[in-house]
Amino acid sequence: MIQERSLTVRSGLPILIFVVPLWFAGAIASFVMAANFRDDFSTGVCVVLGFLLMIFFILTLVGFFAVNPNEARVVQLFGRYNGTVHDQGLWWTNPFTSRRKVSVRVRNFDSDKLKVNDHEGNPVEIGAVVVWKVVDTAEAVFEVDDYEDYVEVQSESALRNLATHYPYDAHDGSSVALRSHTAEIAERLRDEVQERLSKAGVEVLEARISHLAYAPEIASAMLQRQQASAIIAARSKIVDGAVGMVEMALNKLREKEVVELDEERKAQMVSNLLVVLCGDKATQPVINAGTIY
Predict the structure, then answer these.
(1) Are residues 170 and 80 in the same domain?
(2) What is the pTM assigned to this prediction?
């Protein structure tokens, strides 16, 4: 693999101030002298010299290039990689080289909403935001055809692969799921994308899921399932609390010797308390004026 290396270039400001005007003034002076000479030889020499100086002037101008902040220039000479210039400013190098501009700024890639099947086979819609930057300009330019397109394709491929390894939701609460474990999923996605983009000289700074939902064809069914799970969890908590309250009531009655209850009366009391505590609606009390026997 081609690794990035720094290239030493000349500062362009001195050349712009001293060399460029010198070539231009020499070319103008040669043409003026050619117009004043009477013999053909001297005139021809001055014309040729003027054209040469004009060519040097043009080539000198072609050798200038500027590097902006958070930008780099990949320099090639006749197809051979010479090096990369990161320092900002006006520079001058061999005019026959090509200088490709590469941005090293931090960039975002917002993927489309992808439709994939999660670990349990449920169709889901998922999207992600990937924050990345170029850290090796040589690899970005020479190892892949188009590094920006490569980032998009590989990020979506990594997102699809990640979605198939985890369920949308952890119904038992113990396994890692796409919806409930955002930090773990984001870290896993970043590592997955970085592994695919390392050969392109790209560093992934952050990767997070930006959109997650069930596919429309199963969204209503899954909503009912979530509602049922929530109702069951709530009922389970209510029953646990009601049993604890009934146990506490019986213990208090026994400790304070308020009333002696036989097993049948205890069963009736437990039944009444559970109906009151676990019912969806307010209960209507019925006063028993007689005896249960």
Answers:
(1) no
(2) 0.70
